[in-house]
Amino acid sequence: MEERLQMKEIFTQTIEADWLQQRNITLNVLRLDKIHSVISGNKWFKLKYYLLDAIKKGFTGIGTFGGPFSNHIIATACLCHSRQLKSIGIIRGMQPAQLPHTLAAAQQYGMKLYFVSRTAYKEKDIVRKKFNSFYWVNEGGYGIKGATGAREILAYCSSPEKYSHIVCAVGTGTMMAGIITKAKANQRILGISIMKDNHSLIEQVRDLLATRDENKSYKILHNYHFGGYAKHPQQLIEYMNKLWQQHGLPTDIVYTSKVFFAIEQMVTENTIPAGSNVLMIHSGGLQGNFSLPAGTLYF
Ligand SMILES: *Cc1c(COP(=O)(O)O)cnc(C)c1O
């Protein structure tokens, strides 16, 4: 299946900076964004086992849910297109006069979009029953199959056990659950919530873990959301441009820029102690930057 997607090389990038060197901290970034420009980063891993299940059970299409800027929606559309499957996206909110980039691109991959009010969106079961010939995937790919795919992420970096800290973005917590499952007992997993005050996330993560993994060392941090989901104040845009200029590292406005920022803060505040060996998961999502006016970013 990987070959059909023409998966590209995932690699780890070492970040060099004074704030790291002064504290003898190593920071490597696992560049999952390199997999595919659309089914980028963690979305490939999270969708894989849903797709295989849908095909095995003979479904001819996949349906899922998301907001207007959802990387999950566009990844599902593109993946289905590559496998000649139909796709449906139930989108939260009223249909805008002009479709945002993500949805327009999903539509180009053949996804049928249905806009539902926020109230109807909450009643997902009613919506999905209307299309019961489709294989339904939760919003954001949340669930055991998504986490099972995410367990494969760490295998893409060499000696993952050497890291003392692994830091990733948290939307639904599916990726984080997969990473916790593969982490060693002495590794600390830090999840950066990109939503404001979404404190039920920790339960969501725990629900995807086996009992033996519940005692591993993990934590979700809630103070790096920059105002909330997809909020990108000028300070964040400038930070992203700086990361590009100084490290050649492209980040996205929703997830990965906030993760890098969190790491820098934690290092400079010594929350991540001197001598640590840190792995950041670059979970992709760069297509989301197309929603910015041209020229906002240097990359
Ligand atoms: C979807 C997404 C996430 C969130 O993953 P979850 O498994 O839902 O927590 C993180 N980073 C990027 C770039 C994403 O597109």
Describe the structure.
With 299 residues, the chain is of the alpha/beta class. 34% of the residues lie in helices and 18% in strands. It is built from twelve helices and ten strands. The protein has helices at 2-5, 18-21, 42-56, 71-82, 101-108, 118-122, 124-129, 144-150, 174-182, 201-206, 234-247, 256-268, and strands at residues 12-15, 26-31, 61-66, 86-92, 111-116, 135-136, 165-170, 188-193, 217-221, 277-282. The strands form two sheets. A six-stranded mixed sheet has the order 1-2-10-7-8-9. Helix 3 packs across helix 4, helix 3 crosses helix 8 and helix 8 packs across helix 9. The two termini are 30 Å apart. 43% of the residues are buried. The model has no long low-confidence stretch (mean pLDDT 94). Residues 41-43, 46, 71-72, 140, 169-176, 252, 255-256, 283-285 line the site of pyridoxal-5'-phosphate (PLP). The site of pyridoxal-5'-phosphate (PLP) has 21 residues, from helix 3, helix 4, strand 7 and helix 9.
Features:
12 helices; alpha/beta; 6-stranded mixed beta sheet; binds pyridoxal-5'-phosphate; single chain
Mean pLDDT over all positions: 94
Q: Given the C-alpha coordinates, what overall shape results? A: globular
What structural category arises from helix and sheet content?
alpha/beta
Low-confidence stretches: none
Strand proportion, as a percent range, falls in 15-25%
* Residues in helix, %: 25-40%
Instruction: Work out the number of β strands.
Output: 10
Sheet of most strands: 6 strands, mixed
In which order are the strands of the major sheet placed? Answer: 1-2-10-7-8-9
Order of SSEs, N→C? HEHEHEHEHEHHEHEHEHEHHE
Question: Ligands in the structure?
Answer: pyridoxal-5'-phosphate
Terminus-to-terminus distance: 30 Å
Helix count? Answer: 12
Cα Rg: 19 Å
